[in-house]
Amino acid sequence: MGNPAEKWILTPVRSVGRIPLDWVGNMGRMGLFLAQALFYAFAPPLKFFRVLKQIRFIGFGSVTVIVLTGAFTGMVLGFQGYYTLSRVGSTAFLGPMVALSLLRELGPVLAALMVTGRAGSAVTAELGIMRNSEQIDALEIMGLSPFRYLVVPTFLASLISVPLLTAIFNVVGILGGYLVGGRLLGVSAGTYFGEMTAYADAQDVLAGFYKSICFGGLIAWVSCFKGYTAGFGAEGVSRATTEAVVLSSVLILICDYLLTSFLF
Amino acid sequence: MITIDNLHKSFDGVEVLKGASLEVRDGDVVALIGPSGEGKSVFLKHVSGLLKPDSGRIFFNGKDLCGLRRSELVALRSRFGFLFQNGALFDSMTVYDNVAFPLREKTRLSEKQIRERVLAELEQVGLAEAEDKYPAQLSGGMAKRAALARALIRAPEIMLFDEPTTGLDPIIVHSIHELIDSTHKRLGFSGILVSHEIPEVFAFVQKVAFLHEGVIRFVGTPKEIFETDDTVVRDFIRGSLPSEALRFREQVPFQLNVNEARGGVA
Hints:
The complex is a heterodimer. Chain A is an all-alpha fold. Chain A has nine helices and no strands.
């Protein structure tokens, strides 16, 4: 590329081309990472205590933030739903409206976003620091698979924790909706919960359940991958953490749209 | 016997290793020396299988490391010990758990047997009192000794040391060297020791290899390296500026004091 004219033309073209190439390369690496994680998930032995430890961290550790966000989401839904429904004289449907919104959409999505922010980022930072301080290399040198010790337990814990946290989010959200709609605005408990059970069925619960499982897998996949492949130093780890949170959040929303449109 | 043959490795188009070759005989410890940033740690990580070469081969008793299946590589690694530059202790575990970890995961020993072996190893490295401490609570020297205990707990046949004394004071450096020497005599492992502690490491290694510009430029006994005619090697081990640079500086109008240039260290 000695010719200056050639340089002027080729350099921008190469820069443009590098973006999709990097993107495709990263997709491939993420795909291989997932394949390896799945392989070790089904190849015994399973590190049971590490799974429990991660469930404690991802699941139990996120309960407070899930309860708080669930309560306030339900309360906001109670307010907004009541004033919207009162315009058409249908405040009796507040219960079904709050329940269906939470069970099918808001519960799985918001719970997953909260877990991404609280636990996903921490998983990425922990793996990134372990990568930088050669702790992951130390595992490999001992003849132990980092996937079996670090990645698979996080995957399983996330798959178990996120649906349970979503369930907590839904229950607290429905109660929050009742607190506002019922206690403050006067919808009776019988109407609120009676109409809810009439309109929200098991299919709605299952729809949210399937979504939350997918989101749990997504969070673990992205967080572990970004941490495992984190760059050098504090900057590398902080960039990996930011990317993990942003990518997980975006993928959760895209996945939610796809699941809603194709499956339910 | 470890044979490293014509190793090449590039990172982002920069060639770090350009055909490095080395042989380590059974029971020998080879000190790998050379200027910073020349790829000594990269070389060591290839020997351990943590990095794959672009080309070249690594043989253990005739077995090609690059041609091994994953299960064979895992089996081979159980014969390895690796002392990382910063220790690489698991920071969520105590010193005791760090040292016990390889035994718990790779052997069928009872917890009582593991305890006996771990305490004996910690005693050997002078950390009997620190078993309940976490890596963050250890000094640099203690962390290195704990990492050494973890690396040696399964009596490896091959030990790789990546700058085990970097950032430590001279007394701790001496004690770590003594520890490596005594464990080498006790366990009889073969090994490669990346170090900048020249000439201290020459006191207990059998061979010295000099990595320069991506190739092993010199291999010989500690005595032979002092007698070599290779000016680059000679300048390096005497801590002088490279001969070429020195000649250039002698031609400039003002006289450059070499000791001043090196921060006043004689």
